[in-house]
Structure formats: C-alpha cells, structure tokens
Amino acid sequence: MSDKYEFWNPEIETKPIDELKELQLKRLKKLIKYVYKRNRYYHEKLRNNNIKPDDIKALKDIEKLPFLTKQDLREYYPFGLVCTSLDDIVEVHASSGTTGKPVVGPYTKNDSELWGEVMARSLWANGLRKQDILQNSYGYGLFTGAHGFEKGAQKIGAMVITISSGNTKRQIDIMKDFGTTALACTPSYSLYIAEVAEENGLDPQKDFKLRLGLFGAESWSNEMRKNIEKRWGITAHEHYGLTEIIGPGVVSECKEKKLHINADHFLPEIIDPKTGETLEPGEEGELVFTTLTKEAFPAIRFRTRDLASLSEETCECGRTLPIQSRIKGRSDDMMKIKGVIVFPSQIESALIQVKGISDNYQIIKTKKGEITTLSVEVEPTEERFKEGHLEELEEKAEEEIYSILNLHVPVKVIPPKTIPRSTGKAKRIIER
Ligand SMILES: [Zn+2]
What is the band of 400 on the pLDDT scale with cuts at 50, 70, 90? Predict the structure, then answer.
C-alpha cells in the first residue's frame, strides 16, 4: 500500500469497489427522491416514464431513467433545472454557448465546496502541494476552468497567480519572476508560451522553475503530451470536466496517468450513442454522468457526447476509483470521410510522428454538396523550414496519416508562424 500522503482523501480514493457501489446506490436513491420532489421538469420526466423514486433498488436501475441532453438544458435555460431556491445559489458559471444558448451551472455553497474538494483531490493526485506556485492561465470569466483550479489549489494551500489567459509576454515575465512551478491552461497555449519564451531568448527547460503542467479544455493526443513534457521539461497532466457536471474535477489523473473518476460524486456509464443501451466495461461508447451529491443543479444521466471506455481494473497508484480512458473525441468532432471515421486527434498523432513538423496544424474540412473532404496545413519547425525540400515533409506526413486512417489526406506545409495562435482552445478544424 502506498504512503497515505499520496491521497488527498484516502478513505474514498482507496475504498473497496463494493463499498463504493453501496455508497453510490445510497446517494442515487436519495438523489432521485430529491429531484422528484423539488423540480417540476424532473418530476414530469420521471412520471412520463412511469418511474417512482422507490423503483430505484439497485445501481442497475439507473438504466430505467431517461437521459438528460443538451437540448433539455437549452429548453430550461437558465434556471429551469434548479432544485433549490434561487436564494441558495452563491455562484454561477456558463459555457461559451457557441451553438445556441450557453449551458448554465449554478452552485449552492455546498456545491462550491464540493468542487473545491474534487479539484483538490485531482491536483493532489497530479503532485501539487502547498509549496507550489500555480500560474492559473485559464481565462477567468463565466467559464468554469480557472475558478475550479483556483478553488482546488487554494484548498491544498498552494499559491495561486490569478493571471487569466492572454498577454503572453507578461505570462513569461510573471512565470520567471514569481518562480511558477505549475502552469494551468490549455495544452496548446502552453506550447505558445514556450514559443514566445524562446523568441525572447529564454530556454523553457532552464530559465523557469516549472515542473507541472495542468492541462485541459481541449483534446490532445499522447504524442502532444510527450512533446509538451519535453519542451518544458515537466510532467503534464490531463484534466477533464464539464459545466453540466461541475466543471473541472470530474477525474483525478494519477502518476500512472490514469484518469480516476471521482465516482463517489459522479456516477459514470458508457452507452451506445445510437441505441442508448448500456455497454460493458472496456467497450467504447458515449460517456454519461449522474451527479450524486450536487444540490442546485443535479444532472441525471447527462449525455456528454464524449467517446471513451470505463474500467474497474486496479491501478498501480493504489486508487480504487474507476478509470475512464482518455477522450477519443467528441462525437460532434467525428467526421466521416469516404466512409472512414476520422477524429482530429488521430491526425494529430500521425503528424507528430514526422520529424521536422511542429505542433501547429489545422485540419481543413471542405464540403461540396454531399461530399466532405479533408486536407491538412501544418507548420514545420524553423530549422526544418530553412532546409527546404518541404514536399518531402508533406509526403511523409501523408504516409503517416494513411498508415493510421487508411485514407489519403493531402498535407500542405506552410511557413512557420502562419497559423493563428490561441490563448485558449486552439481552433484545429476550419470549415471551408
Ligand atoms: Zn492510478
């Protein structure tokens, strides 16, 4: 058994799986009674499906409950799903709402404390400690990201630099002057910060005290993770969360780089996205979450549209909390090209295999009538660009993509620093 100091909450994080399931069932029963009594939408939805709270006798009975979808959230915007009095809400966040109304996340005092607790668990698992200095370069605003990291890090007792995103030169000055040891932002922004540091004559590995990267809000391949770790000389950890569930803090990535779900609060399921049927551990499908303990806005069987699989295998780290695979992609990002299913992350993995190619790329999606085609634009490294013969690089990249997808995708190498950089989520797919 590992040192107790490894865990933020040893009792929960190493609870035998049977006991965890007992706790989940107890909480699920209570939750269904709670929403049935407190919220008109949930009450009607359960009644229309002929379900009474007493029908929940085993965890498996969750499958009788209807799903909660993004459309439901839009329909009940902004506060229709709230189960407390509005007076009890002390904090509210929202997603960007790029398609239609934003998703609103209201929190009671207890919800907000729960958020701090699961984020502390998650950051502790990453190795963040009291003596760390966390540069919080997620954008502060309605978005949950920055706030979740701040709560969790402060609970641990670390120093939080609330710099928000943007003004990259200033990020570098502060990082150097304050002695930042942990950087929280999107993975692509961390690479942009490294690029600007180098332009200013600094060595990301030698001129900073950075040792931890806490990255999320964007899907990134394992290859990209290795590149970032090498570039900065740090350990990079994945964070995963959703406004509908709580924000970041849904999972804790351990030293083995396994994503342990904080399943005492967030009950996961994997379903077939087409039929809605529940899938077995190990099978890949759509991730669905039920918040077991939230008060203001409990989500019951929320369909995330993220594709992953679940496992209850034991982990070297000693945690017993179930593990979710890294997100393969949002089902929204999935493209079907000439009958082949393509995820942007697969193209990223292929490109990174090619020596001389940088981490900056864009996938161009062109629609002509019913037919969608893909092409890729990618920047080489500065050194490789100077060597010339870029068509060789294009050929190699096309071969790598073909070997992964069995699909010919034309690649164009464009001069370094032509793809716009982002201080938040990188725009990887361009529709033309
Ligand atoms: Zn683990």
Answer: very high
Spatial distance between the Cα atoms of 29 and 313, rounded to a whole number of angstroms: 26
Coil, helix or strand at residue 424:
coil
74: phi then psi, degrees, rounded to nearest 5:
-65, -40
Q: Which residues surround ligand 1, an ion (CB under 5 A)?
A: 254, 256, 258, 315, 317, 319
Distance 115 CA to ligand 1 centre (A): 21
Tokens of 79: 């506060």
b/e code 220-255 from CB counts within 10 Å (16+ = b): bbebbbebbeebbebbbbbbbbbbbbbbbbbbbbbe
pLDDT per residue over 257-270, tens digit each? 999 999 999 999 99
Distance 258 CA to ligand 1 centre (A): 5
H helix runs in 204-247, sequence order: 222-232
CA of 313 to the centre of ligand 1 (A): 10
Residue 37 DSSP class: H
Mean pLDDT of the chain: 95
Distance CA 212, CA 194 (A): 14
- SS3 at position 94: strand
Query: Long-range contacts for 220-223 (Cβ within 8 Å, ≥24 apart)?
Result: 220/187, 220/188, 220/345, 220/348, 221/345, 221/348, 221/349, 221/352, 222/326, 222/349, 223/348, 223/349, 223/352, 223/353
Distance 255 CA to ligand 1 centre (A): 6
pLDDT at 2: 44
> Could you give all domains of the chain from N- to C-terminal order, each with its CATH number?
1-258 (3.40.50.12780), 335-431 (3.30.300.30)
Q: Which two tokens stand for residue 10?
A: 């040893």
156 C-alpha vs ligand 1 centroid, how far in Å?
A: 20
Average pLDDT estimate for 37-60: 97
H-only helix segments in 127-184:
145-156, 168-178
Strand partners, 372: 367
What is the whole-number distance in angstroms between the Cα of residue 8 and the centre of ligand 1? 13
Note the pLDDT tens digit of each residue in 312-364.
898 999 999 999 999 988 877 888 898 899 999 899 999 999 999 999 999 99
